[in-house]
Task: structure prediction
Amino acid sequence: MHLNLECDEKTHMRSYEISPGLVIQGFTPPMRLSDFKLIAFDMDSTLINIECVDEIADAAGRKPEVAAITEATMRGEITDFKESLRQRVALLKGVTLADMEMVYRERLQLNPGAAALVAACKSAGLKVLLVSGGFTFFSDRVRDRLDIDFTRANVLEMVEDKLTGRLVDQAWGDICDGAEKRRMLLHTCEQLGISPKQAIAMGDGANDLPMMKACSEVGGLSVAYHAKPVVRDQAMVAISTGGLDRLLSVMQLTT
Result:
């Protein structure tokens, strides 16, 4: 096992690079997958390879403008996720259903190791939650591909097969932001009759931090996947190279 010990200046926790591109901090092994009952994933750039809003914007010729807002939001430079998303969605006005289907068919792929990690978690008895600041058009399809148990995402308003540039309010609220991701994770734990210490939360952007902290602060596990620095620095496991299923090597190393 490759072991490199550092002390993170922001978290004041010792971090261990247990192999290249795989760092743990803030907990002491052993940790077993079977000790957990729920794993929660962000979707865009975590479970899948794209930021869906950016790729939809490409169909409208507005990808650079939308992608710049997305990047600043994920890095934590824009802190009002709801307003950021509304701005980006407004720029999608006029995109067609056919354009959306093209994005799903030609651009969206599961990230490496996604299917293997989800299958391993389900085999170990965990339920799987997908919480996304993206859109149900994509999250519902990803849910079906991976047999995911619970989802929460935003609904794009469409009239006559064209986006209106607005989101549809849902029974639980208007937009799935960081606070809603955290709330949905805690609600799912309650539904399952478990504690957040029995949950794993995995993401890559600043709006994933609330749900990640809801786990890590009570003894659960937070995982950053190819994440922005603000997320990577605070995660208990940071995967910077390779696939999502590298989390399984942490579990194997710590059994």
About this structure: Strands lie at 4-7, 14-19, 22-25, 38-41, 127-135, 150-159, 162-168, 199-203, 221-225, 237-239. Confidence is low (pLDDT under 50) at residues 5-12. The longest helix spans residues 178-192. The CA atoms of residues 115 and 246 lie 12 Å apart.
